[in-house]
Fold this sequence. Notes:
9 strands, about 15% strand, two-stranded parallel ribbon
Amino acid sequence: MTLQGRTALVTGSSKGLGRAILLRLAGQGANVVVNYSRDENAAAEVQAAAEALGVRAITVAADVSQLDGIQKVFDATIAAFGRIDIVVANAGMEKVNVAVTDVTEEDFDLLFRVNTKGPYFVLREAARRIADNGRIVTISSNTTTVPQLGVGLYGTSKVATGYLARVLALELGPRGVTVNTVVPGPIDGAGIFTDPANDEYKQSLVAMVPIGRLGTTEDVAAVVAFLTSDDAGLITGQQLVADGGMH
């Protein structure tokens, strides 16, 4: 599953799941773009880790929930590498353990800007700029398929991008571009589960997983790597669930 000579842009890739995805693609030979919004030191560390794998890497500070930030990261990618072959729309924000009755308008606007508007326009820009036979992958959440207490807002904000990916797969199919969505379950060591205060909540979710553990960032990165490979050339418009059987 070599990605030698290809260029991969992973939004929100300075830490957590995005970091794991980016380093997995780099490990398979892709030149990579580390996108971050605030943590410059973390982005620099990921860049160094990618370069240690023998590929070229750049960092781009850009808020990809805003259209100018999206434009900036795509412009920087083209300027540095001349092409984009892989786009992973990963950047997002979690908000759980909040009842529907407690959600504020500010909560709603923020989650939908980061989890819905941002990925929508990342995919729009990817559709305009990606090379023929490229790969687009969006990262969703199994809260869109498994109703749970306290995830009404978060799950709703993650639904739209998976649907958009299915439509975009139809539009880009004639160019050989595939568009798919990965739907992870809870991920140990990422997002809210980097905070020990959420350990009790984590254990309650483990009890819901048939295989008896939460996923890891590496588990999900492996799924993304498959979908961006030549081996997945016939897979498009799909939502691939990786949640240990919770769905």
